[in-house]
Amino acid sequence: MGSVRAMASTRLLCSFNNRVADSTKTLARAGWSLSCRRNVSSSPSRLQSCMPGWVIDQYGTNGVLTYTEDIPVPTVNSPSDVMIKVYAASLNPLDIAMRGGYGATLLKLKRHPMSVLGSDYGSEFPLILGRDVSGVVVDCGSEVTHVAPGDEVWAAVPPWKQGSLAEFVTLTEYEVSHKPKSVSHAEAASIPYVANTALSALVNAGGLCRDSSSNKRVLITGGSGGVGTFSIQLLKAWGAHVTVTCSQNAEGLVRGLGADEVVDYTAEDASEQLEMMEKFDVVLDNVGGETEQLALGLLKPWSGAKYVTLVTPLLLNTDSMGLLNGMCQAGSSLQSKAIQNIISGGVFYRWGFYAPDGPALDDVSRLVDAGKILPVVEAQFPFTQVPQAFQKLEQGHARGKTVVRVTEEDDQRSEEFVQESYTDTAEFEQERREPAKQH
Ligand SMILES: NC(=O)c1ccc[n+]([C@@H]2O[C@H](COP(=O)([O-])OP(=O)(O)OC[C@H]3O[C@@H](n4cnc5c(N)ncnc54)[C@H](OP(=O)(O)O)[C@@H]3O)[C@@H](O)[C@H]2O)c1
C-alpha cells in the first residue's frame, strides 16, 4: 500500500516535472524562463517576511547569542541567488571567534565597502553566525541553472555573509552544491566549511590534487578536529601517505579514518618521533604556534615541499592595528617567513584560507556517496540549544564536528508526507475527472 502510494506520487512528480520541463523549454524560447522558474518555486517570501534564528547584536561571550523570530527573510535579490531552507548547520572555531569580534574589521569592509570611510557606513548587526548548511532550495534567481527549488543542497557560508543559524540562508549558485544522498542533513552539515578550507589549503597552497598525491607524504597536525578528520579522509581517497598528530585518546578515531601513522603530541618524545620519520612533502598545520617551527623542520629540503598553516594572523592584525597597518603587517610577516624558509631549506611557507567553492563540494559529495568520506559528527544539538552547542565547541578537544539541527528531519518527513498526501489526492482527483472528460 505504502509502495503503491510512493510509486503513484513518484509517477505524478515525474509527469509534473516533465510538464514543467516542457513548458520551460517553450517559454525559454520565448524569453520567459524567469517567470517559469518563479512559478515552480515555492518562495516563502510570498508567505512570510520574518524568520526565526539566532543573532548577535554586539560582540561578546555566549550571553550575546539571542533567539528571535523577527529576522527579515533573506529573499532572492540577484539572478545568481539561491535561497535555502536550513535543515542543519554546524559550528566551527570561527563562529566562537566571530562571536567575540574576530575579523570584524576586514569582514565589515567586505560586507559594506563604504565602511572604509568611517563607522557610519553600515552595521553588521544583527549578525547571524553558522558557516555550514544542509537544506532544501526554496527559491532561485533567474540565472541559476545548477540547482532548482526542491533540490537538497549543502554549502559553506562565507564569513562575510549572514550565517546558517536561521530558518533560511541565501547564497550564490557558485557556493551551493547538491548534498550527498547517502547521509542525513545533520551529517552533511558537518562537512562543507572544513571541506572548502581543506581543499583550498591542500590544492591551492599545498599543490596537491587527486592525481598527484599517491606518492606524497603528508603530515596533518591537529588531525582530530573538523579540518583534520576531513583532510585525512580526502588525502587517503587521493592515495597519499598520511601522518597525523593528535592526543592519545583520538588515535582510534584518526586511524579509523585511514591515518597511516599517528603521533601523540602530548607524549614527551613527540618531537623526536616526528623527527625520526621520513621527511614530508606537505604539512597541513591546524595548530600553529610552536608547532610551526617543528613542522617546518620535518619537510623534505630542496624538493618543492610545502608548509601550509591555517592559523594565520591576518584577521587578528587588521582587528588590532586597523585595516591598512594590519594588512601590511600580515603581508610583511608572510613575506619574511616565505623568504627565510625558501633560502634556508628550499621549502615553501604558505597560509591557507577557506575559499567558497560549490564545484569542489560536488566532488566531495561524490566521495561521500562512494563511502570514501564519512561525516564525523561528535555532538548534535536541537535549534533551541545553540548556546549549549557554542559552549561545547568552546571547551575545545573537538573530535570532528558539532552540529545544530535547525529543522528536525522528522518535521521534514511530516512536511513531505503532507505534500505527498496532497499530490496523491490531486492525482486521484485528476484521474477521476479525466475518464469523465473522455466520455
Ligand atoms: N584560515 C582559515 O581560513 C581557517 C579555516 C578553518 C579553520 N581554521 C583554523 O584551523 C584550525 C583547525 O580548525 P578545526 O576546525 O579543525 O578546529 P577544531 O575542530 O577545534 O580542531 C582542533 C583539534 O586540534 C587538536 N589539538 C589541539 N592542540 C593540538 C596540538 N598541539 N597538536 C595536535 N592536535 C592538537 C584538538 O584536540 P585536543 O585539544 O584534544 O588535542 C582538536 O581536535 C583552527 O585554529 C581554525 O581556527 C582556519
UniProtKB/TrEMBL annotation:
Domain Enoyl reductase (ER), first and last residues per copy: 60-404
Keyword NADP among record annotations: yes
SMART domains referenced in this protein's UniProt entry, alphabetically: PKS_ER (SM00829)
GO biological process, one term: ubiquinone biosynthetic process
Pathway: Cofactor biosynthesis; ubiquinone biosynthesis
A Gene Ontology molecular function term of the record: zinc ion binding
Comp. bias intervals (Basic and acidic residues): 429-439
Key words, A-Z: Membrane, Mitochondrion, Mitochondrion outer membrane, NADP, Neurogenesis, Nucleotide-binding, Oxidoreductase, Transit peptide, Ubiquinone biosynthesis
Predominant cellular place of this UniProt entry's protein: mitochondrion
Pfam families the record matches: ADH_N (PF08240), ADH_zinc_N_2 (PF13602)
Cellular component terms (Gene Ontology): mitochondrial matrix; mitochondrial outer membrane
Known catalytic reactions: a 3-demethylubiquinone + NADPH + 2 H(+) = a 3-demethylubiquinol + NADP(+); a 3-demethylubiquinone + NADH + 2 H(+) = a 3-demethylubiquinol + NAD(+); 3-demethylubiquinone-10 + NADH + 2 H(+) = 3-demethylubiquinol-10 + NAD(+); 3-demethylubiquinone-10 + NADPH + 2 H(+) = 3-demethylubiquinol-10 + NADP(+)
Start and end residues of each stretch annotated as Disordered: 403-439
Subcellular locations according to the entry: Mitochondrion matrix; Mitochondrion outer membrane
Similarity section: Belongs to the zinc-containing alcohol dehydrogenase family. Quinone oxidoreductase subfamily.
Protein name: NAD(P)H oxidoreductase RTN4IP1, mitochondrial
Organism: Gymnodraco acuticeps (Antarctic dragonfish)
Gene that specifies this protein: LOC117556207
